[in-house]
Amino acid sequence: MSYPSTVQAIAISKTGGPEVIEKREIPFPKVAPNHLVVKVQYLGVNFIDTYYRQVSKRLKCPEERAQVCDREGVYSPSEFPFVIGRETGGIVVGLPTDEFVLNNPDYKKRGYKEGSRVAVDHLSTHAEYISVPWETVYVIPESVSTLTAVSALEQGLTAISFMEEAYNVQKDDIILIHTVAGGLGLLMTQLAKSRGATVIGTTSTPEKAALAKANGADHVILYKSEDTVSRVLELTNGEGVHAIFDGVGKDTFESDFLMVRRKGTLVSVGNASGAVPPFPPIKLAQKNLKLLRPRYYSMANYIVTLAEVLYYGNTLFSLLANGTLKTQVFKEYPFTAEGVQQAQIDLTGGKTTGKLVVKVSD
């Protein structure tokens, strides 16, 4: 097909508050021989989008290929204007032209076709059309809607890979999930329950607690009015939990050490309240603890190889199709600067549950 010369995209020209988000016209993306071209229908909104926007000081990336720097949980655009976002869904309108790619057995396994519905995990993809490496594109099966796939892609792949590799959740484990009513927290709760674990969660309001329980959480602690540490120790007969999945970061890190049991595992999922400050490794020796800090965006380094991408993508869509995982869409926002600004304000304001999405086209 012939492509338009320009597209509308959600971008920033500088870092700052939500007001720096703008919808602007940019040239149609350069189509490389190994790329798929996708007409976008939905965008997923994630905390990582706000990290790019908020960084106050740009950092020089040591790797030429790096589009974003990661220094103690801080992310910085490589150049401006910078198109935000990394979770996208739509329809394939162009296939690779590189014969080496087309004959690649791993490429053939995906079954890409023009008209395929796909979900994309790639930086700077919040635009009407995107051109992306085929390795970052997941074909959506007929049994899963595009909206569901976009609602689950980043957080679903994170939940599955973290609960298999950071800490392999097992039957009879007791797991603590901070911000249990968020998009990631709900999926982690559902996944842990499907594996036979007991789930304790933390959240801010009774309404969020009810939602978490409806998704399988056994106990939900209202951290604003309850002593989280005391409640966790009470629920575990003083032993603590087997593992903690903590997306809050700085504000909950110290108390995590009080709530995890001997030989337990702390998985630092994210840093919504700020990056965890430096600490002496000897702190882990008090209970012989394991501490992991996998990267949230793109789940690196759990989902890197072609085999890993295929395995985790198939696993996610299988769990969505059979009902083990169910997404909760909090709200659909319009594809405007104001719409995306409001989505980020709502996400960081602590009043949302489930997933926030932006609708781009039918």
Instruction: Find the CATH topology of the largest domain.
Output: Quinone Oxidoreductase, Chain A, domain 1
Give the structural class.
Answer: alpha/beta
CATH first level of the largest domain: which class? Alpha Beta
The domain count comes to 2
For the record, give the distance between the C-alpha atoms at the N and C termini, rounded to a whole number: 18 Å
Gyration radius, in Å: 20 Å
Number of helices: 10
H and E string: EEEHEEEEHHEEEHEHEHEHEHEEHEHE
Annotated CATH homologous superfamily of the largest domain: Medium-chain alcohol dehydrogenases, catalytic domain
Largest sheet: 7 strands, mixed
Strand content: 25-35%
- Average residue pLDDT: 91
Number of strands: 18
Low-pLDDT stretches: 56-73
* Principal-axis shape: globular
The CATH architecture classification of the largest domain is Alpha-Beta Complex
Provide the helix percentage: 25-40%
Please write out the topology:
Layout: E1 6-12, E2 21-27, E3 35-45, H1 47-54, E4 68-71, E5 74-77, E6 82-83, E7 87-94, H2 99-102, H3 105-110, E8 117-121, E9 129-133, E10 137-139, H4 146-166, E11 174-177, H5 183-194, E12 198-203, H6 206-214, E13 219-222, H7 228-235, E14 241-246, H8 250-259, E15 260-268, E16 290-292, H9 306-321, E17 329-334, H10 337-348, E18 355-359
Parallel strand pairs: 11-12, 11-14, 12-13, 14-15, 15-16, 17-18
Antiparallel strand pairs: 1-2, 1-6, 3-7, 3-9, 3-18, 4-5, 7-8, 8-10
Helix pairs in contact: 4-5, 4-9
